[in-house]
Structures are given as structure tokens and as C-alpha cells.
Amino acid sequence: MVRLALLKLLESFFRHRWLYLLPILLMAVAAGISVMRAKPLYSSSGSLYIQSGSLVKSLNDLPSASASWWVTPSQVTVNQIRELLQTEAFVRPVVKGTPFETTLNGTPDQLGEAIKAINKSIVVATAGDNLVTFSAEYQDAQVAYQLARQLPESYVLWKLNSDRQDSLAAQSFFGDLVAPYQKQLDTARSNLQSYIEANPAPVRGDRPELERIEINRLQGEVTQAQTRVEEVRQKEESARLAQIQAERGVRQTYLIIDAPKQPTLRVNGLRTLLLSNILFLVIGVILSVVGVIGSAVLDRSLRFPMESTLALHLPVIAMIPKVRMLRDPMPVGNQRTAPSEEHNTDTPAIVQREERSVEVPAIVQPPLTTSLAQSSNE
Amino acid sequence: MMKLFQNRKNKGNPHMEPFVLRSAIDTPLTVFSQEVIASHRRMITGLLYQQQIPAKIAVLGTLQGEGVTYTALALGATMASDLPTRVCVVELNMWSPGLLSLLRTATHPIARKRLFRKPPPPPAIDENLLPSSLGVAGILAGTVSLEEALIPTFLPNLMLLSAGDLAIEARPTAARSEALKALIAEVAEQFDHVILDIPALLANSDAIALASLADAGCLVVRQGVTPLALIKQALDEIKHISMLGIVMNQTYFHTPRWLYNLIPRG
């Protein structure tokens, strides 16, 4: 059965070998065209280290690495960068000075397409709990380098800006409170001064009880207003300090370990292209194999003598080869061709055979069909 | 020089020259390549030494176009040429007779189909030089005798009997008639071997009745064309007939010989 299956597969292939080689050929041509049309691609990459402690501090509401073991600082950073890469505000500084910059100035649809293209060019991935790798690919080495260089810078700036905004808001809030609180303090002092002036202390003896109570109340108001003003000023200073600390913290948190370099060699060299396009050939081979197997399976005709023995339980007694038909008419009345020319109508056939038997027939290799018949009947 | 079986390997080899079947008056009737003759010779030799060659052999086919008539004629010619026996090829396929057409292929070859050229007109040949016979139909109708209906060939021990033209409605009756049985018996008396050319088994049921007139049968199958299921069905129809085996016609293997030899034989 194995022999029969092999024979059927081989016969199926060789019967339409050009047809089965066609998918491989077409795929090879497609691979060749793909290789020929492939533009040079350069890649520039670097890595960014995130210090956990500072990061946790800077990430106000995000889970910390120590508290939330399922989210690492690098994952948080990668997710943030990926999300930010979807926004025009973040993408603009990243693509500044590159051909992408002009594409961002189109219609909203064109902008969306441009952002998609930029996202395709930039790859950000985690390489550990605290390490983020980033790379940028482009047909121009300089542009690839620019993209890779500007990406971490833009991200750090964005982080700085976000923290600065918080501090500025706090400063502004507390700065706005200082003036009214100062006014309240001045009013309280003025009230106290006016009352004391209106009610001077007696020459002899103590102030009356009511005056003392009123002065104490006014004095309390002054103290309360003064405390409030001092607190607001202290908070304003704290906000200012926090801004400076945050800026320094961000710079310390995000540390570029491997700075991107300008690539000199193209990523998709001829060897790489050929290796990547080998998929075409594999698909072609698979198509051919499927075709051969399918053809062999679907062929339910009697093709080999072995099939007759197995399926019909009958021997193959003759295998008549396929021969070309006569093309031109034979002339009527000419001499006979061998072996009929040896025949004589007056002579019995047996005598003719005896005459022929004198000749030693040439050893002619039996045709393949004969061998097959013999093997089948064996 | 006529172009016959253009095979460069065999060109000039006298043993591979085609075998031309001629009429008694030397008109070429049909041509068999030596490969075809060798295949039939091998078949006859196998039958001769493994068992006796039956007196009446039915050459059967599953479907039309399997090459039954061609095989029957080639088998008859080979037997007559190789054995000291009298052989008669009887065509019983009245539904689509092809013996007389086959006997004209040497002088009227089938024109090749050309895309932009018209096939050349058939050569003008005196029709009297070509064999004609009223055949089995004429004998059954009583128009001619067996001796008159037989077509002689240049081999004195080979005679041919064509089917003739019988009315469609008369064919089923004729296939099962005693007259036909008697005719076959008469032919069998005059000849050592009678080769019956039977119509396709699955084409009509009359083929079964006609096949039953023989002592044994062999089924002609076109390699790579006839489905196995239909062959089985045809063989089921003629279970009552002793089968010699299968004759694979128009065989051609695309697998290279060296590769074929590499496959281990189980």
C-alpha cells in the first residue's frame, strides 16, 4: 500500500509537473519582485532605565512597583508612551525635523494616517522590570536616528511638564490666597489699633472688664489672620520647592542608558530580505504539495497494475502502451513493411515464424509498462 | 517517407518497425506499433503457458472508447501471426461498430486538429480496395453467408467479421437470439480461436448477453481514465464469466524509470 501511495503521488506530480511547479515559480517571482522593490530601511535604537523609587514618587496615582507586583515601572512607561504616541501633541515634538512633520499639518484623516505611519516606525518594548527599549525605523538613517533620539526626550519633557503644571497650579492657588488673607490681617490689625486708640488705658488701675474682652477678641482675630497668611506663604514655598524637586526627580528617574546612534548599515540587507521572502517559496511549495496530494487522492481511476490486484483481484495480463496514431496515409500497393513483408499469402503462418526464428532478435529493454505488469503479477 | 510512431530511439531498428495489417489484396488496413504487438504477444504467451487459451475470448470494456475493438484486432493479429491457429475477430458491437473504420486507418488516418489550418482532404482511394462486409447483421438477416461476410487478411489464418448494420429495435433481440449463438458456434467450429468484440458493459445490458457467448473474457481498461468503481460495477455484471484478467490500454507512466526503480518493492 505504501508503494502504491508513493507511486500515485509521484505519478500525480510528474503527470502535471509544470502545473505543480507553477505555484513555486510564481511565488519565487513574487519574492524576487518583493526583494527588488524593497526600500532600504535603517533602524536606530536605545534603552531607557526607570528608577523604581523615584518613579513611584512621581507617578501620583499609579500603582508602585513594590505595592503592585503585576505592573512594573517599565510596563507603565511603555504603556504611557504608546498611548501618548496616539496624540498629536506628543507626536509633534517627536517627529520635529523629520519628513513626518509636514504630514501632521493635513486634514484630520491625513493626520490619523500620519500618526499610524509614525506608530509603525517607532517600536517601544519592555526589556525587564525597569528597562525600556525603543527603536525607530525609516528609509533614511538620519530620520531614524532623529526619531529615536527625540522620543525619550519628548517623553521626559512631557513628564516634566505634567509635574510642573501641578506645582504651578498649587503656587497659583496659594498665591491667590495670600492677598485676601493679608487684607484680612491688615483689617484685623487696623481694628485692634483703632479700638486701642479709642479706648486708651486708664492712668490708674486696670482696664474695665469689657474693654479687656474686646481687645482680646481683636487680638485673636489678628493672630488667626497672621497664622493663615503664614501658612499660605509656607505652602506656596512648598509648591515651588516641589516643582524643583519634581524636575530633578524626573531627570533622575528616566535615565538613557544606551543613547541611540545614527545607523550606518541597513536593517533589510539582501540576505535578510531573502530569508524573510523565503516564506513565499514555502507557500508555493505547500500549494504544490497540496495539489499533488489532492490530485492523487481524487484520482480514482485504475493507474497501476497493483491496484487491479488489490481492488479487483484480477491480474493485469497486458499493458498496451500509448502510441502515436498514424499521421499520414499509407500508399496503397507499395511494398509491405516488416514483419509483414516476410509473410506470403500462400504460406502458412507457422512456416513464416520458423523462417523468422533463424534471426537472433535484438535485445530490446522491455518498456516500463511491461516491467510494471510483471511486478504486479508477481 | 511516412511518419510512423516517431520514436528516435527506435528509428532504424527493424525489430521496432510497425506491424501493418493488410488485406488479402495487399491494401494496408491498419498499423500496430511493435510495442503494442509485443504487449499482446506477452499476454498470449502468459495465457499459453499459465493456462490454455480459451477458444472464445470476449474482449470487454467498461465504458465506450476504452479501445476494445483495437485490442481485439491487435490480439487477433498477434495470435494469427505468432500461433499456428486459425483466428477470427468477430465484432458484436452493433451499437457503435468500429472495426471497418479501424481497418481504414492506414489509408485514412485521423487528421490532426490544427488551430488555423484545415485538415487535408482524405486521399482518393478506390473503395473496392478497402474491405467491406455486411457482417453479423447480414448473416443474421440471411442476406449473406458466413463465408461471404468474412473479411480476409494477408494472414491466411486471420479472418475478420464486422458487426454490420442492424436496426436499433432488432439489436436486443439479436443479442439474445439463438441465431447469434448458432453463428458464433459455427465460427468457433471453423476457427481455433474466436475473439469477440463486445460493446461497453455499462452502456447497455445487451453486452452481458453477448459476453456470455464467450468462454472467458478480458476487460480492457484505459489507464488513468476508467474509474475503479465503474470497473468493479462492470465486473459485477459479468460475474458468471470466467475472467482472464485486465488489459490496461493506452498506458503511459510519467514517473521516470530511475525514480520508479528507487521505490522499494514490498
Q: Descriptors for this entry?
A:
heterodimer, A: 378 residues, alpha+beta, four-stranded antiparallel β-sheet, 5 strands, rod-shaped, disordered C terminus, B: 266 residues, alpha/beta, Rossmann fold, seven-stranded mixed β-sheet, two-stranded antiparallel sheet, 10 helices, 9 strands, 19% strand, disordered N terminus
Can you give a write-up of this model?
- The complex is a heterodimer of chains A (378) and B (266).
- With 378 residues, chain A is of the alpha+beta class.
- Chain A has a domain at 39-258.
- Chain A is built from 14 helices and five strands.
- Chain A has helices at residues 2-15, 17-37, 52-58, 73-84, 88-94, 100-103, 108-121, 141-198, 209-253, 270-276, 278-298, 305-312, 349-356, 368-377; strands at 42-50, 122-126, 131-138, 254-258, 316-321.
- Chain A has a four-stranded antiparallel sheet.
- In chain A, β2 and β3 (131-138) form a beta hairpin.
- In chain A, α2 (17-37) packs antiparallel against α11 (278-298).
- The longest helix of chain A is centred in the middle third of the chain and has 58 residues, at 141-198.
- The model of chain A is unreliable at 58-67 and 334-378 (pLDDT under 50).
- By secondary structure, chain B is an alpha/beta fold.
- Helices cover 33% and strands 19% of the residues of chain B.
- In chain B, the strands form two sheets. Chain B has a seven-stranded mixed sheet, sandwiched between helices. Chain B has a two-stranded antiparallel sheet with strand order 1-2.
- The chains are: A alpha+beta (378), B alpha/beta (266).
- At the A-B interface, α1, α12, β5, α13 and α14 of A face β1, α1, α2, β8 and α9 of B.
Order of helices and strands of chain B: EEHEHEHHHEEHHEHEHEH
* DSSP E strands of chain A, number: 5
- N→C terminal distance of chain B: 47 Å
The whole-number mean of residue pLDDT values of chain B reads 86
The most extensive interface, with participating residues per chain, is:
A-B, 63 and 88 residues
CATH superfamily of chain B: P-loop containing nucleotide triphosphate hydrolases
Task: Please name the CATH architecture of chain B.
Answer: 3-Layer(aba) Sandwich
Major sheet strand order of chain B:
5-6-4-7-3-8-9
Largest sheet of chain B: 7 strands, mixed
Roughly what fraction of the amino acids of chain B lie in strands?
15-25%
Helix proportion of chain B:
25-40%
Question: What's the number of structural domains of chain B?
Answer: 1
Radius of gyration of chain B: 19 Å
Arithmetic mean of pLDDT of chain A: 80
Low-confidence stretches of chain B: 1-7
Q: Work out the helix count of chain B.
A: 10
Q: Specify the number of helices of chain A.
A: 14
Percentage of residues assigned to helices of chain A: 55-70%
* Helix-strand makeup class of chain A: alpha+beta
Main sheet of chain A, how many strands, which sense, barrel?
4 strands, antiparallel
Q: Could you tell me the radius of gyration of chain A in angstroms?
A: 48 Å
